[in-house]
Design goal:
Order of helices and strands of chain A: HHHHHHHHHHHHH
Number of strands of chain A: 0
CATH topology of chain A: MetI-like fold
CATH architecture of chain A: Orthogonal Bundle
Number of strands of chain B: 19
Structural class of chain A: mainly alpha
CATH architecture of one domain in chain B: 3-Layer(aba) Sandwich
Number of helices of chain A: 13
Radius of gyration of chain A: 22 Å
Number of helices of chain B: 16
Oligomer: heterodimer
Largest sheet of chain B: 6 strands, mixed
Radius of gyration of chain B: 26 Å
Number of domains of chain A: 1
Strand order of the largest sheet of chain B: 6-7-8-3-9-10
CATH class of one domain in chain B: Alpha Beta
Largest sheet of chain A: none
Shape of chain A: globular
CATH superfamily of one domain in chain B: P-loop containing nucleotide triphosphate hydrolases
């Protein structure tokens, strides 16, 4: 059966050719994207860093308490962020938060409308599904290679990879929520004189809200997991000390940075999960 | 007023194929087999006047809901017309533009759903306001109207609760309030009480009748329960396999079922709320003895002596003679004396059984100026057992 592998199909080469073509002919365009994204992210980080850590912690603590309507979570925020501040990972944490915030915001703004459109058009969802499967199952490292060649080292390839990886969650869960709106609610909406837009905003979206929010929470978690990996291509944040610790077999740093990531993950999850 | 004119509803694509087959007289089983299309309603015509409750009655799959839903466009019709009274006269709902149809739903036709269909994230008050908001009312008008409707159905204390905190009966009251708030002439009710406990169901039925007396709407009500249909309906349309098999008054449905199918339904129903004295009574015969008395019951030596005025009629029971009293609707039955009683010929069976029980005498049925018949126990048992149905079946 040697002949089976003698004439290899050049699948990998094809993909490479596509990426090469894009770099050759769209280089300016991708550079432009890279520069603008870089500027936005840097601006966001600087904005967040302008706040004194104490002010930031109090702001997040009260925000979390208000969102979840209980004060135990505020205490957890103060203790968790306080520990990170104490360990000396404040700057990295803010960088990671900025990336997660931006990626999630983008994914939700794009993913929720796409999910709604797909729920209303079964053919669109049929076309979208293999794409979403692909985006979610390709090992995350593999994304980094083409985005690296397209956008160069730094925050941007990490961010783009994060968005591709995380956007499937809000699309899927929005689609699920909207398709599961009970038929009788839609009929009631129609019977009481809703136009299609009113039906969407007054019936479908509120009825699907818990599913959409679950999509947002998942998106946050996926972004966070990807943002750490993005450090491999030079993205700033908590991933960096982890990668550095890995290379130097530095158990102490690795554990501290890892702990900071875990704290952030739990915090974000508890803050945005529906009570 | 709402009128369905030769309405066909076919589910599936290209319904024209099914319509052709319907015209050739093929039944819906055959049509489904050959084309995969489902005939929901087949050539249904029905007119419901203002102030009338018309009950569409049938088993599940009989097309009653399908027909109802054509009235506000939740189901499309494949052929026929649905005429609705509007400011511009009678209009066919399906000849109107999308926007005009929407206006009709806001101003003329509203609906109460079987599973309530309340928005779980809105409060009771917000649910009641749901349709009114679409109409572009000011906050203040809206608030006043919502409060008024909630009071009407007795839920004013619950206005800030979520539907999930309410019992099924209360939720359907909210559904009712949401529909009534629209102040439309026509209310469609799609098995609104089917999901409720029997006791609550009966309470809500009474409430609907009470509201209807006050509001005088055109109600099209779908039910699979004949007792409910008989209690609520001014008219009942019984459907089977998408066809209206009988459209009649409740009493006529019970007395003269048009088909075997209807007769089977009627055989299992309780007639006491439907039948009236005139259909139970035995017409007065000819004088049967030298005194000019008419025999009521020869077995008990029970005689009636007619007179020029009904009040002067005398009844003789063996050797005892009685004068008579009159009963009319709304008069307390418990206050009647133990003597023969003249009742109007539209007295409900429920009332006349009670009068028979209280007075201990046979009943004389009068239509104003004369006594036309009598009702004794035989007649009551006969009606209770549905013997007229057996007789009809025997004749058929």
């Amino acid at each position: 059966m040697d002949w089976m592998s003698q004439y290899k199909l050049p699948v990998g080469e094809w993909m490479e050719a596509v990426v090469d073509f894009m770099t050759d002919h769209g280089g300016g365009f991708f550079d432009w994207i890279a520069v603008s994204l870089e500027t936005v992210i840097q601006g966001l980080i600087e904005l967040l860093m302008m706040l004194h850590p104490l002010a930031f912690i109090l702001l997040v603590a009260s925000g979390a308490g208000w969102l979840q309507r209980r004060w135990s979570i505020s205490i957890f925020v103060v203790l968790g962020l306080g520990l990170i501040w104490n360990l000396g990972y404040w700057q990295e944490t803010i960088e990671t938060l900025a990336l997660v915030l931006f990626a999630t915001g983008f994914c939700v703004l794009l993913g929720v409308p796409v999910g709604i459109a797909a729920a209303h058009r079964p053919w669109l969802y049929r076309g979208l599904r293999p794409l979403l499967d692909l985006m979610q199952t390709i090992p995350t490292f593999v994304y980094l290679i083409p985005t690296l060649t397209l956008f160069g080292l730094g925050v941007v390839p990490g961010l783009i990879s994060t968005i591709i990886f995380a956007i499937a969650a809000p699309i899927r869960l929005t689609h699920l929520g909207i398709t599961q709106v009970p038929e009788e609610l839609l009929e009631a909406g129609k019977a009481f004189g809703c136009k299609p837009t009113a039906l969407l905003f007054k019936v479908e979206i509120p009825a699907a809200m818990s599913s959409i929010l679950a999509g947002v929470t998942q998106c946050i978690m996926l972004s966070l997991s990807m943002v750490v990996i993005a450090a491999l291509v030079g993205a700033d944040g908590l991933g960096k000390p982890v990668v550095r610790a890995l290379n130097t077999v530095d158990i102490a740093t690795g554990f501290e940075a890892g702990l900071a990531i875990v704290l952030i993950a739990i915090l974000l999850d508890r803050m945005f999960k529906k009570a | 007023m709402i009128e369905f004119k030769n309405v066909d509803v076919v589910f599936g694509s290209q319904p024209a194929r099914a319509l052709e087959m319907l015209d050739r007289g093929e039944d819906r089983g055959a049509i489904h087999e050959k084309t995969g299309l489902t005939v929901g309603v087949n050539n249904a015509s029905l007119r419901v006047e203002k102030g009338e409750i018309c009950v569409l009655m049938g088993l599940s799959g009989s097309g009653k809901s399908s027909l109802l839903r054509t009235a506000n466009g939740l189901n499309k019709i494949s052929r026929g017309q649905v005429l609705i009274d509007t400011e511009e006269g009678e209009q066919d709902f399906f000849s109107l533009s999308e926007e005009q149809q929407r206006r009709l739903r806001l101003e003329r036709i509203t609906m109460v759903f079987q599973k309530f269909a309340l928005m779980p994230w809105l409060t009771v008050a917000e649910n009641v306001a749901f349709g009114l908001e679409r109409r572009g009312m000011t906050k203040k008008e809206l608030q006043a109207k919502v409060d008024e409707q909630l009071e009407l159905v007795g839920l004013d204390k619950w206005k800030n609760s979520k539907p999930g905190e309410l019992s099924g009966g209360m939720q359907q009251r909210v559904g009712l309030a949401r529909a009534l708030a629209m102040e439309t002439d026509i209310i469609l009710m799609d098995e609104p009480f089917s999901a409720l406990d029997p006791l609550i169901r009966s309470q809500l039925q009474d409430e609907l009748l009470r509201l209807q007396e006050k509001l005088n709407k055109t109600v099209v009500f779908v039910s699979h329960d004949l007792d409910e249909a008989l209690k609520l309906g001014n008219h009942i349309a019984i459907m089977k396999d998408g066809v209206i098999v009988q459209h009649d008054t409740p009493e006529n449905i019970v007395l003269n079922p048009a088909t075997e199918y209807v007769r089977n339904f009627v055989a299992h129903t309780n007639p006491v709320n439907v039948l009236q004295a005139r259909s139970l009574m035995k017409p007065l015969g000819e004088p049967g003895n030298d005194e000019g008395e008419i025999c009521i019951s020869s077995r008990y030596d029970y005689w009636l002596k007619p007179a020029a005025k009904p009040e002067e009629t005398r009844v003789r029971y063996a050797d005892t003679r009685f004068d008579v009293q009159r009963w009319s609707e709304n008069q307390p039955i418990g206050a009647l004396e133990e003597k023969p009683t003249i009742i109007p010929n539209n007295t409900l069976m429920r009332d006349l059984v009670e009068i028979r029980h209280v007075t201990g005498h046979a009943l004389l049925v009068g239509n104003g100026e004369e006594i036309t018949g009598v009702i004794n126990d035989q007649n009551i048992y006969h009606a209770l057992l549905g013997c007229h149905l057996d007789e009809q079946a025997a004749q058929a």
